[in-house]
Structure formats: C-alpha cells, structure tokens
Amino acid sequence: MRVFVTGATGWIGSATVDELLRAGHDVVGLARSENAAASLKGKGATPLLGDLDDLDAIRRGARDAEAVVHLANKHDWADPAATNRAERGAVETIAEALAGTDRAFAVASALSGLVQGRPALETDPSPAVGLDSPRGGSENLALDYARRGVRAMSVRFAPSVHGTGDPGFIASVVAAARRHGVSAFIGDGSAAWSAVHRTDAARLIRLGLEGAPAGSRLHATAEKAVSTRTIAESVGAVLDLPVTSVAPQDAAEHFGFVGRFFGMDMTASSERTREMLAWTPTGPTLVEDIREGAYTGA
C-alpha cells in the first residue's frame, strides 16, 4: 500500500515508517522541515513538506494514499485550544479526502479519561466529543466516518511508549529525579500506567492498517498496569538515588507538566486487540528499559 503518515519523523512515527517500509509498503511522510524531509528520504520514504496547519498538503497526502496514519499532534500544553483545533482540522481533512474509498485511516488517541476505577477496554467509547474536548474529539470524529466509506480506526497509545531516546513522560520523570536528587512518586504510588515498547506500537499500527475492520478501537498496551511507585523505584535504582513520595499538591512543582499525569491511573487491556490482529508484543518492558539505561545512558 501507499501509506501517508503524519508525524512521520516523531517518536512513534519514525518507528512506524520503519515498520511499514520493512513490510514492503510505500510511505509518504509529512515533513515540517528540510531536515525532516532528508531523514525520510534517507530511509526510502517520500517526504511531503507541510505541517498540521497546512491542510492543503494534508489533503493531497491523504487523497493520493491507499491508507493514512495520523500521528502528528502539536502537544501545546500552554494553548490546548490550538492543539485541539489543529487536531480536529487535520482529522476532518483526511477523513473527507478518504470518504467513500473504503481506505484505512488510523488515528492516534490516548487512554486518559476513558473510564474510572478499572482498565479501559476497546469497547469503551471515548467521552471526548467536539472541538472543546481533548484532542478536539478526533477519535469519535474519525470513527464517525466508518459510516461514510472509510475504514477508520483509533489507536489508543499507552502513556508510556518507551524505548531508548524516548522524549516523553518517563524522560520528564527521570529529569525531575536528577533535578531534585530523589526519584519520586505521587502519594502512595499506587497510580498505574500502561506501557508499550515503540517497536510493538509501530507493528500494531501496521497490522491495523492491513486488517482491522472499520470502527475498531485498538489498544497499544503491552503491559496493562505498571505502578508509578515501581517506575520511581526503577529510576532511583539506575540513578542511585533515594526514592520518596511527593504530596499531590506538590506534584506540579516537583515534576513540572508531567505532574498533571503521574498521579493518574491510565491503564487499559489489549486483549481484544491482540485477538483481532494476532499482535503479540515482544519488546522489553518499561522497567527493563529504565534499568537498562534507555533514559539515562547507563
């Protein structure tokens, strides 16, 4: 297939491009800069210059593709409304370009806020609807196009898509430990996160494009729940730092922006996803990555 990928040089996107190319697919990647374009060319992918605000470029990429993976996101924590607008605009543009074609469209989504008190299931709908909701309600918007001739699916990523070089939440937790000289968790540390290695996440995206039915919600979670205390203890062990608790009211000061999330339960089952696509994660666990120096160069 000819696959158009937004976020093609990002953390998950770059692994996805590699996975798609290895499987014999042609890849066109949205590139925000000449450096990003050169990186894609070096892999054997075709760059398309543009960004999330360039809806004409996104429309061209989607129109000429046999499948689309939308991974790009502004992640502007200072202006979430701008992030939501850009996300919804990109998803709507892609979906309209694909309407009536029965082509695959995979949209990145998240696990936070789906349910309370238990791991989320693939059958749990997202409560985010409309422009003012998280990610602009893009998951539900995309899945609505399953009724309009698009093989739309959401891919809900674990809060930790980990591996060497990961710039995400765990990197921020490690940076806070170095900054304060202690590795911390929030409260009693019982809050837990799902986790998945980025190569497993990339393989799931490829399998979804190749075989998931329209309307699927796919869970990119290899580990259902890793407690935040276990994460902090692993960071402390590799950095040789003491491990301590931080009160919830002090979390933002200690951790920075990631303090909003580190005390939250963000867990999910991937049982249905595994059965549907014969997806079996094989990468290292989150704790193995931390302890083997993926975040510290140890």
Automatic annotation (TrEMBL):
<protein>
    <submittedName>
        <fullName>NAD-dependent epimerase/dehydratase family protein</fullName>
    </submittedName>
</protein>
<dbReference type="Pfam" id="PF01370">
    <property type="entry name" value="Epimerase"/>
</dbReference>
<dbReference type="InterPro" id="IPR036291">
    <property type="entry name" value="NAD(P)-bd_dom_sf"/>
</dbReference>
<feature type="domain" description="NAD-dependent epimerase/dehydratase">
    <location>
        <begin position="3"/>
        <end position="210"/>
    </location>
</feature>
<dbReference type="InterPro" id="IPR001509">
    <property type="entry name" value="Epimerase_deHydtase"/>
</dbReference>
<dbReference type="InterPro" id="IPR051783">
    <property type="entry name" value="NAD(P)-dependent_oxidoreduct"/>
</dbReference>
